[in-house]
Request: fold
Amino acid sequence: MPWPVNDLISVRLELVTLVSQPDANVRQLCRRFSVSPSMAYKWRDRYEALGLEGLADQSRQPRRSPARTAASAEEQIVVLRQEHPAWGGRKLRRRLLDLGQKKVPAASTITDILHRHGLIHSQQSQAAEPFVGFERPAPNELWQVDFKGHFAMSQGRCYPLCALDDHSRYNVILAACADQQEQTVQGHLTAAFRRFGLPQAVLWDNGSPWGSTGGEYTALDVWLLRLGIHPCHGRPFHPQTQGKEERFHRTLKAEVLQRGGWRDHAHVQDAFDGWRPVYNGQRPHEALGLETPSSRYRSSQRSLPEQLPTVEYDHGVAVRRVDINGWISYGSRLWKVGRAFVKQDVGIRPGHRDGVMEIIFMTQIIKELNLRDNTTTAAP
Reply:
């Protein structure tokens, strides 16, 4: 399927970024992006020589060229701040260095310059040092997924869907959605899996469409399990479980959403498509030591299969088909598995405690059956 014309530059930039990684599987990436290796290398060389202009189908005059202008360093800082009103002195300094500037003032000096030009308020300069929390040791071990609330447009409401790689903070999904339905989420996840490969696990909360008040598995959970992806749910009423995603939401609001004046979903998506490469590849990230997410991200080596894998179990595992109400029969009685598994085959095997059996789906333990008191409990 051809990419939309207005998205070509960001797609090519994403491909160039991934291809340029030292251990990149170029042929696999080219298949995912539907381009030939020669074309991928051509875009990479043009980007290295010309920057973003080299990724266009025809030459375009850049709006601003700090490296070629005769303006002073202070003027360059003012221009960059006007482009990124939410960036402080540390981010602006790192970005100027990344752009090739040789003589860049200290971050504190840049903050003073912003004050003199009325581009920063006192509370913005009093930010605490970045908190360094837990992160997965490698890319694609965990993706955090969530909706960034919703807001009104001239035509309807928008529900931004966001997905972030836990290790690198690389944004893999930023979509202006018209709803929060299961089909919408699955469609965007499928597109991301095709482009970046499969993560080992996905973390989301307990709200609709990926969670339930009773802590039961959802259809989205079952779909991930079929793909060999472990679905994780944050602790109820503990948004800090998805702290990186929550932080991304604040950045998205500060740098994009607060502009306001949104007409429709296409208008919002166009803004998302323009900002996403900036966030991934230009914006220095405090928690990454002022590196960018793209400098730490690598695509997954596990590709999305064309068809869902067959549900199979080892010899000795009792197999039961879940009925239309979410129950199975075992040991002369009925046990509740959950409606998400309707018409799916589950396995039953001995647990690690006497009198306890495990219900598994694929490789995931989903329930425990206590044969002594005839109760089921969620897997630990």
In short: The radius of gyration is 24 Å.
